[in-house]
MYND-type domain-containing protein (Micromonas pusilla), 480 residues
Amino acid sequence: MTKIKLPRKIRELVKKANGGCGKAAYAIAGHYRKGTGGVEENDELARQWLVKAAELGHVGTQSDLGSMFYELSEYEAARKWWEKAAAQGDVHAMKMLGQLYEDGRGVEKNKSTAAEWFLKAASTGDREAQLNYGIFLDDEMGQYAAAREWYEKAAAQGDYDAMNNLGQLYDNGRGVERNKSTAAAWYLKGALKGNPCAQNNYGVYLELEREQYANALKWYERAAACGNESSMCNIGLLYDEGRGVERNIAKAREWWEQAVEQGCQKSETMLKLTHTEAAPQPIAQNDYVAYEKMVLERSKFSGGGSDYVSHYVDRLGDLWTAKREALLSIMEDTSASISDDAMELFASGPLPDHKAEDRLHHLALCFLHGRCGLEKNLRMAKEAFKLAEIYHPDNAAVAEELVKLRACVTCGKRDARLGCKLCRGVRYCDKRCQQKDWARGTEPHPPHRETCSRAVNGIMPPGYFARLRDEAAKEREASN
């Protein structure tokens, strides 16, 4: 058999490798794998030199061999090489050993041992390892507080998956006090870095918590462009229900069809529903009360299938929870006292026929007219209208109501300068109108001494609305 003379470069590497240099053996393997350095591509020789490099202690090769055997489902061999690489500090090997013990591949399944390996990898400061250990603690161990610490370390290094996961912890109150605003802040950080899940989750926050449907649509579209099925489904729902966009069933179906291609079962259910003649009709755009009535109707609809009904049952629960939180927030800030029965009646009781663009607008109208279990209270109405104006500055109806509340409550004169010194919630054009309102009131308004919120409830602390305006402005600027 003719002996093939190797190129000089390869001969020198062979000499070093035979002298115990693992790095040289690894280089030779690379040349045979790629067909470079004057030798032809040869997978068998490449593998032989890889094994030699690993046996000589080359840590990168040991880790690569572990991955190669793992892909061949030879888990015991993979574990052997990863243990050698991990002993030399290879982070990838540590992470994969943790995965082996978590999945029970080639070893007996052992979460404690898996946790040890994940912790070793994370303790090196590797960003991905920190994220993975956080996920393991979160999903497998239920140790949410510890998971948060590792997510924060990974997020500090710019990991957008960790940012999204932190948002979910705060969103669901796992290991931390539930805080939608903090959750949204983390979602936004991940979204701005391009994480599709974070973009979708931030869109959900804008839709359900802020009722900023057009802005939510923008983030859904960004996530959908990356193939996120949940965002595609959510866009379809916005078009189906006419939220922030003109109602368009054809567009809704287009988005649901894309989501179905990605495996979204909810979208498949929605597609089937659009062929059902008995399906309840969506409501007009920007009508919060009519929308909640529609959600309630659909949550009871028997022809849509369990997935369909489940979606609207969940959505109805979200609406009621959001209403409770809005009322509770105002109660806490003003020290107002409202009974539990009144709270539940406002949140889940029968709805009036007034038109409101969002839940804060709805809450303000309920205080203004004494509806949905809430007693009439002009001061509380004004506080709610001011909040609605901050978060939805384009709502002309809210601006109009605020103008009315700045008018004299006795004679109706606009831009009245004199106000109740106790509550600052009502205005008068002069002392005569103030005295009349205080003592006798005007039809249909009762005497102000019976409704003055300062006497019955508290008021918003100084600087409260200015702080909220700044926060809302910063949130809109960051979102854009």
Remarks:
- The first strand starts at residue 418 and ends at 419.
